[in-house]
Amino acid sequence: MKRPTIGDVARLAGVSTATVSRTLHSPEVVSETARNAVLEAVRYTGYTQNAAAQNLRQRRAKAVLVLVPDIGNTFFSEILAGIERVASAAGLTILIGDTANDVRREEDFLRYLRNGRADGVLLLNGRLPPSVIATLDEGAGRPPMVTISEALDRQVVPHVGIDNVAAAELAVRHLLDLGHRRIAHLCGPADNILTRQRLAGYRRAMAAAGIPAGRESLLAGDFTAESGGRAALELLALPERPSAIFCSNDEMAMGLISVLHGRGMAVPCDLSVVGFDDIVFAKTYIPALTTIHQPRSDLGERAMHSLLALLDGTLEQQQAPALLEARLVVRESTAACRAPR
Amino acid sequence: MKRPTIGDVARLAGVSTATVSRTLHSPEVVSETARNAVLEAVRYTGYTQNAAAQNLRQRRAKAVLVLVPDIGNTFFSEILAGIERVASAAGLTILIGDTANDVRREEDFLRYLRNGRADGVLLLNGRLPPSVIATLDEGAGRPPMVTISEALDRQVVPHVGIDNVAAAELAVRHLLDLGHRRIAHLCGPADNILTRQRLAGYRRAMAAAGIPAGRESLLAGDFTAESGGRAALELLALPERPSAIFCSNDEMAMGLISVLHGRGMAVPCDLSVVGFDDIVFAKTYIPALTTIHQPRSDLGERAMHSLLALLDGTLEQQQAPALLEARLVVRESTAACRAPR
DNA sequence: TTGTATGCGTTATCAG
DNA sequence: CTGATAACGCATACAA
């Protein structure tokens, strides 16, 4: 009826609880006879170690918290899959906190760190919640953490991501190579670091081509498809329409294309579009979206590895960011236009 | 340096640890003076209860496991959001297990139930892993669980979902009302219960309209966009092409439309399409997709409420399924066609 | 209303 | 190689 404990197993195997524990943790230190008796008893009783007791005794949770702005965003969920893969290989559980970009919710999840439910944290949300900032100087007492994708302004925590500036440059250069001169940029939310980095890349590429790209070539968005749709309307109202646009992410690009399509403006014939992220739907979209592909699984795996190292103390808290490679994926939305559809 | 314990707080407040514990759990039973002293000490020390110790003592994890086939699928992630909302309101943590539709991974996550990391489980994966089936007869010993969206064949566990048969009928009737007679159906994976239910709805609607709908009107898919693309090729090769198709989910519909578009066949002009689920991208897609909308948040919330009830013993294990309402959302993919695009 | 004492199930230390 | 035993931090039964 009740779940078997280590004591039950010990009794059945005719050994002490210590031996049972040892058999389960380091089988090599117990005699073969004892080991077999224990394993047999474990099988017979169906014994499983009680996680709470272990955590209490060992003062660790064998779990890590992952803070993500939106689980539903496939961009994040593939990173999560990468994280999960290495976490579970290391015997760690992951606690996913969907923060909906809300600081209150972030703080809320961080209590898992304080009450010992999690041993460390992976930050995908581009910001350090206040309560964590407070611990930064402490050195110890400071929770093991790694940022992914969205770096912090101050580089105070190990980070795994891509070089967004360079990737954005790649995207814009692609449009330039296609012969476009009037290239607009649809930005993400103003306070976001990705927005700033991708904007910088856009500017750098335009400057390198000797093309002025002032405020008038910038549209404001917030990474949602809806904001892309609004930007489309702005774009339509422009006195001199661009022939191409680089969008700071794929959702906005799709929202934009969708509304343009509704107004009779076709992509790529009337406007070439490049997105960013290469989300799953990018290639199913009509037109299939030219975009920057990020190695999402790798980002997750790499970051989890770093966190593991931090947890064993193998890795320093201060550290140069690990930048993985992003690449341009050319699809239909920047194709040369034969005949208008 | 070290994290404060209940003992530290007690000492500082000049009371016993029992009083501290009581203050935190049922403030009304301790005197105001004691309570204030304790709360003051808690603030001063920054004390937080240790979850492992609580779990060990109370023999529960205050956590539930949620098994989902694919977190990245927005269909599931919105359900998750609903679950999370009520779970966190009830002070429970959710452990998300992305099973990738792999029984081995399911079993793997279920160890959380046995080792006491989770108190119950929410199943979104449409199947009962073998180790759970084994416990079904036990009554007690059987873990509290609720299925969501995908029911089990035998109704042995509380379930929250929609009436898929009726919803599919709704979709097909919409096409019939539009005047379509040759209506195909793109199925999901053969062994999936949703596939069977939606197929049944399709058949029922066709039969009610007196239209024969045999095997020749059925295309095989597996819920992925790729399989939708393959189905498009099959469809193109058909001797008598249908004028409309009902797809068992949105991803397949999009994959299908995308490939058709590549072959010069336009939706809705050459073929009307209805999907199922109303995933986030359905309305941004070109053409915007007519589909069946499921109340995803509600499904999650409702299911979590049921599980909570199961956990307090308020609810029976055996129970009629809770069926929430799904509705048809009419968009461009079944629009009347003025001029070919 | 409060305090004392016990045990939740493990693991690590320390003798043997 | 093995066993006894003391924590780990907390919540509750019981006594006061």
Strand order of the largest sheet of chain A: 2-1-3-4-5-11
**Low-pLDDT ranges of chain A:** none
Number of strands of chain A: 12
CATH domain fold name of the largest domain in chain A: Rossmann fold
Radius of gyration of chain A: 26 Å
Helicity range of the residues of chain A?
A: 40-55%
Task: Name the biggest interface.
Answer: A-B, 48 and 48 residues
Task: Describe this structure as you would to a colleague.
2 copies of one chain form a homodimer. In chain A, helix 1 crosses helix 2 (17-25). The longest helix of chain A has 17 residues, at 296-312. The first copy, chain A, is 42% helix and 13% strand. Chain A is elongated, with a radius of gyration of 26 Å. Chain A starts with 5 loop residues before the first helix and ends in a 12-residue tail after the last strand. Chain A is an alpha/beta fold and 341 residues long. Chain A folds into 3 domains: 6-49, 434 Repressor (Amino-terminal Domain) (Orthogonal Bundle); 60-161 and 296-324, Response regulator (Rossmann fold, 3-Layer(aba) Sandwich), CATH 3.40.50; 164-294, Response regulator (Rossmann fold), CATH 3.40.50.2300. Chains A and B meet through helix 4, helix 5, strand 2, helix 6 and helix 11 of A and helix 4, helix 5, strand 2, helix 6 and helix 11 of B. Chain B binds a DNA duplex (16 and 16 nucleotides) through residues 5-7, 15-22, 25, 29-31, 34, 49-50, 52-59, 116.
